[in-house]
């Protein structure tokens, strides 16, 4: 009761949260932080209700407290003396104690400690992407040959889940109830870690063994309905938050593996089984007994809770406390998202490069026009076949989803079927093609208008140049006429003088001739 009171006091109360984070408990020389002491209770107690109450403290401490989550996540790192079992836990940081429990071996006590530490870690990283990435970077000292590097913490947790599953099958009926909550709690950690964290999904799928193992958990009847359903949720998270483009690890690869190895109908039935197995009884039935510090009374209460759980597929009573209504509501909403996403995957094709068929090659002697027509006919045929394939896949996926049942949304209220959605998609693509063609025509029109403007400007320029040349020619003509007139004016005196000189010379000659003729010498000579 005291632990639950502490949880209620710190829930969304910044002052009390800060006080709890700084609180030291114990006596010298064994003083340790209060959170370390509560973690020790979780890992060491043999009383189930005490574990649940201590886990409730961490749930309340981490809820809506990202700073507190980041503080706890920052301490998670391997400790130099982590393998020393004789070393006092008070000498180790909170995160090192938690990590030591997480990487426990397959001894029963260690597996239960791993399970309880997984529950604490799920509170630390819940709804906090920074803390998820921080814990995802933790590398253990154990080498992983398949990865070529040291083993990530996430891979070790999956290994612990596998060990718990194999141990669960080997245990007898008396210990089955004590071990049956280990796998669901570890699976809850994986779900919380993978949600909204594509890096965690990519890390999980780095090893193909992990995907095959989760599929086995979801499909095998050896495990409880709760384990099968939670494994189905993990697979859904690998589909929904998968950002990988690597072949064999992308969304399509995971969806294909689910379809081939489990079957979509069986896969969606796992969610119905999970919902029934986690159906909470009334709060009056679940809390009709007060928690007691007495071990005898606690075990008596524990046995009564066990009797109430007999109609819940032998579900461990701890699960009724840890898997509260908040987590169940989250699973219901998450289930609807998974159904919708898988339906969408089976309604579209992969973006993969296909090998071109030989008939697409141009034949010898085939003219380009005939070759283009043949290619166009081939592409149209392929498009029609693709639309039919999409319609079949959409209807098939929708049928599987409806067959799975239990969806939180009423699919009958949706007005469009798979074929209608494909037809709408085809019309949308045609509309986009028409828009692209219109844009192309607009661009071509703009180019033509620009060219016309350029030619118009060029014509105007040439016209202006011709006018300038004409004006220059006219100016030259006028100048030539003026010069001719000036030359005419200037040459007139010269012409008159020439004429006078000619007349004068003619008169002199005549006079000389007459004089010679009248001369006696000339007469005598004659």
UniProtKB/TrEMBL annotation:
Keywords: Coiled coil, Golgi apparatus. This is Vesicle tethering protein Uso1/P115-like head domain-containing protein. It comes from the Eukaryota. One of its GO terms (cellular component) is endoplasmic reticulum. The keyword Coiled coil applies. The keyword Ligase does not apply. It comes from Panicum virgatum (Blackwell switchgrass). One of its GO terms (biological process) is endoplasmic reticulum to Golgi vesicle-mediated transport. InterPro entries: ARM-like (IPR011989), Vesicle_P115 (IPR024095), Vesicle_Uso1_P115_head (IPR006953). Residues 24-341 form the Vesicle tethering protein Uso1/P115-like head domain. Pfam families: Uso1_p115_head (PF04869). It is found in: Golgi apparatus. Residues 379-486 form a coiled coil.
């Amino acid at each position: 009761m005291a632990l639950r009171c502490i949880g209620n006091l710190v829930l969304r109360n910044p002052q009390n949260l800060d006080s709890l984070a700084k609180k030291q408990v114990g006596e010298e020389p064994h003083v340790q932080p209060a959170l370390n002491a509560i973690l020790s209770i979780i890992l060491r107690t043999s009383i189930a209700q005490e574990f649940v109450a201590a886990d409730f403290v961490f749930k309340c401490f981490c809820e809506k407290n990202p700073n507190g989550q980041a503080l706890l996540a920052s301490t998670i790192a391997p400790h130099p003396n982590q393998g020393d079992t004789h070393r006092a836990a008070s000498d180790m940081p909170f995160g090192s104690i938690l990590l030591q429990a997480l990487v426990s071996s397959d001894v029963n006590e260690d597996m239960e400690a791993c399970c309880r530490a997984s529950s604490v870690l799920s509170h630390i990283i819940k709804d906090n992407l920074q803390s998820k990435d921080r814990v995802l970077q933790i590398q253990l000292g154990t080498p992983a040959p398949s990865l070529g590097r040291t083993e990530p913490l996430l891979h070790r947790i999956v290994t612990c889940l596998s060990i718990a599953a194999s141990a669960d099958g080997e245990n007898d009926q008396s210990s089955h109830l004590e071990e049956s909550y280990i796998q669901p709690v570890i699976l809850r950690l994986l779900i919380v870690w993978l949600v909204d964290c594509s890096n965690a999904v990519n890390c999980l799928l780095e090893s193909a063994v992990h995907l095959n193992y989760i599929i086995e958990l979801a499909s095998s009847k050896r495990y409880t309905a709760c384990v099968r359903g939670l494994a189905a949720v993990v697979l859904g998270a690998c589909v929904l938050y998968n950002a990988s483009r690597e072949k064999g690890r992308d969304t399509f690869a995971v969806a294909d593996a689910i379809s081939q190895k489990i079957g979509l109908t069986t896969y969606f039935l796992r969610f119905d089984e999970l919902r029934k197995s986690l159906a909470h009884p009334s709060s009056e039935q679940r809390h009709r007994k007060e928690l007691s510090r007495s071990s005898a009374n606690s075990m008596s209460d524990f046995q009564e809770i066990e009797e109430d759980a007999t109609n819940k597929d032998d579900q461990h009573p701890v699960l009724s406390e840890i898997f509260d209504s908040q987590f169940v509501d989250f699973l219901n909403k998450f289930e609807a998202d998974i159904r919708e996403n898988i339906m969408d995957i089976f309604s579209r094709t992969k973006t993969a490069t296909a090998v071109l068929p030989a008939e697409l090659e141009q034949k010898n002697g085939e003219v380009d026009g005939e070759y283009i027509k043949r290619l166009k006919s081939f592409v149209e045929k392929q498009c029609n076949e693709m639309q039919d394939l999409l319609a079949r896949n959409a209807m098939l996926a929708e049928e599987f989803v409806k067959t799975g049942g239990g969806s939180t949304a009423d699919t009958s209220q949706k007005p469009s079927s798979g074929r209608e959605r494909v037809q709408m998609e085809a019309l949308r693509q045609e509309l986009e093609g028409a828009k692209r063609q219109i844009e192309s025509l607009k661009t071509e029109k703009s180019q033509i208008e620009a060219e016309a403007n350029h030619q118009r400007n060029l014509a105007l320029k040439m016209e202006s140049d011709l006018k300038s040349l004409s004006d220059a020619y006219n100016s030259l003509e006028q100048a030539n006429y003026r010069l001719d007139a000036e030359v005419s004016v200037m040459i007139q005196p010269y012409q008159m003088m020439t004429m006078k000189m000619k007349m004068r010379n003619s008169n002199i000659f005549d006079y000389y001739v007459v004089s010679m003729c009248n001369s006696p010498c000339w007469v005598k000579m004659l």
